[in-house]
Amino acid sequence: MTVEKRTDEQTRALALWDASNSKGASPEQGGIVPAGDGAQAPRGGSSLVAGLVICALGGVIAGYIPMLGCFAIGYGAAITLAARNPLQALATLACTLMPAAVVALVAQVATVPSVLVACVIGIGTAWATSRGRLSLSVSFALIGCGTLALIGVDAIQLQSMDSSIADMITQLVNEYAKSIGVASVSAVAQIESLRSVLQLYWPSAYLVVALAEYLCSLLGARASVRREGLCVSMPSLVDYDVPVWLVGVLVADILGLTAVSLVPQAYTNIVNMITANLLVALRIAFAVQGFAIIAWLIRTRHVGAFAGACTIVAGLVLEDQFYVMTIVGLVDVWKNFRHLPRGVKTTIQSNADQDQKSA
Fold this sequence. Notes:
359 residues, globular
């Protein structure tokens, strides 16, 4: 009798468990419940419709402020793309791109192609985050392709108006010179210096825009993954680790800068522009690794909030004046200060416990 009573209690418990699981996996969840033996229902439980609405809202915002729109797109797309459903992926693209294109066309605050590029960066970042595939190579690819796309759409648009990016920069500098009323020789020299710098480093401006849109998308996707309770490891600055081959790219780029004088005159400007802007991108990559070491030290040494903020500000000043954080990040490629499991195929989302082992 005792055994039968226990069996009845177990049967009722299993029935309640099955009922709760069937409710958590209902179609209203939008199919975002992770599959597998260890699957857990999302805490937020947002539906597919809610995710698509957020994506559409992000597209509308992107028509005015692309970076802010990327945050909303990253949040909504992380919900809709977690289900690994091709139809939901197509719905995400449609609900994001169409409102963004219409608003950009009507508002004319930003060009339609540049807004669509921002939306694609947001969707791509959300897809990689929700699937746990946000490796450093994927991040570099998103930022690099976004930069090239932004340059391409502006170049095509200016070409249709019989102009170019170089002509646009010249016009902007001339307008600036007229507005400040340049008269002295020193002022004219400063204007010419500004013109030469802008003519050389204008691609870096597009890089900064693509990087900002990627970071906004990542913040939105991270917030969505946390709220929905998806079984995905979150990326962390502490785990940021550039690949060794990037050092080879840095060496080749420095050699290219020193050998510009050996290039035929017809290609000198383009080679100088490519190598100079590539050096800016590499500096950002290695400087972030330097700040990742600071974040690791703050976490493992249990540094207070005020002291940690002062350390980060000091790092920014040292990087601006002496490239200190870039050098620290470059040295870390060999020294491995954080004891990361290099030589093993990992992503920036898979090293969350390494700082605890190093503490």
